[in-house]
């Protein structure tokens, strides 16, 4: 086995065993910068019906099935299902809500190269590197999520159960009341397919209200800071 093939095999083995790897992982970084290694990885994956999945806006990479094997493995029933992770419908609905509230604003900040604390209309923002996910990804409040969407998503018991499922599959991370972006939230859900449906569909009004409230909170905080700095 050549050195290149050995490196490709090790990287694939790690991805299969861990389900995802950070882009900062040494072998992932090398594959993303070394064309020959990346081609070797893709070829080896294709031999077993898999493909590499990543995007520049996400901090992790993962694997998924190629379209042809996907049809044979899942069959007609699996392809027509809303997911292949055995998530109940209300968990899928919760996943879409969480994705919309976290990934859409994060992607907007990354695309504009603007961190949350940066001044608006900053010159030459487009020439800056992409802000890290950690610095621009919103953190959701469990209490706010329960209050705003609990009735639609099965109330507390169902919401808690489904949040555990999403956490188990790597879509979210939880720390007490905080719900954060998980390693697979911005990788396995296709932004180009999902974003237009959400922005032009049922969640458009919800997102508009969230953005308006966030702006109100930001303006109030700015005003409060200014008041404290005003000399007597």
Which key terms come to mind for this protein?
mainly alpha; 3-stranded antiparallel β-sheet; 10% strand; 2 domains; 232 residues; globular
Layout of secondary structure:
Layout (H helix, E strand, L loop, with lengths): L2 H16 L1 E3 L3 H8 L1 H13 L2 E4 L6 E6 L1 H14 L8 H23 L21 H4 L3 E2 H8 L5 H14 L3 E4 L2 E4 L3 H4 L2 H9 L4 H26 L3
Antiparallel strand pairs: 1-3, 2-3, 4-6, 5-6
Helix pairs in contact: 1-3, 2-3, 5-8
Order of helices and strands: HEHHEEHHHEHHEEHHH
Given helix and strand content, the structural type is mainly alpha
Helical content (DSSP H or I, runs of 4+): 55-70%
Strand content: 5-15%
Number of domains: 2
State the low-pLDDT regions, or none.
118-127
- Overall average pLDDT: 81
């Amino acid at each position: 086995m050549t050195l290149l093939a050995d490196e490709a095999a090790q990287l694939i083995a790690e991805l299969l065993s861990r389900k995802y790897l950070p882009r900062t992982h040494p072998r992932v970084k090398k594959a993303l910068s070394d064309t020959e290694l990346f081609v070797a990885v893709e070829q080896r994956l294709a031999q077993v019906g898999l493909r590499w999945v990543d995007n520049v806006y996400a901090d992790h990479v993962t694997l998924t099935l190629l379209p042809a094997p996907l049809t044979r493995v899942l069959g007609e029933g699996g392809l027509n299902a809303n997911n292949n992770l055995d998530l109940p419908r209300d968990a899928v609905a919760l996943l879409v809500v969480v994705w919309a509230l976290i990934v859409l604003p994060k992607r907007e900040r990354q695309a504009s190269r603007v961190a949350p604390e940066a001044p608006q209309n900053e010159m030459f923002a487009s020439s800056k590197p992409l802000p890290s996910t950690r610095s621009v990804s919103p953190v959701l409040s469990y209490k706010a999520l329960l209050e705003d969407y609990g009735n639609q998503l099965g109330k507390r018991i169902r919401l808690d159960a489904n949040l555990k499922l999403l956490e188990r599959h790597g879509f979210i991370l939880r720390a007490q009341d905080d719900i954060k972006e998980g390693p697979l939230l911005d990788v396995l859900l296709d932004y180009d397919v999902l974003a237009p449906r959400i922005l032009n569909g049922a969640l458009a009004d919800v997102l508009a209200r969230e953005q308006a409230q966030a702006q109100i909170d930001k303006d109030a905080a700015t005003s409060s800071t200014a008041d404290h700095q005003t000399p007597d």
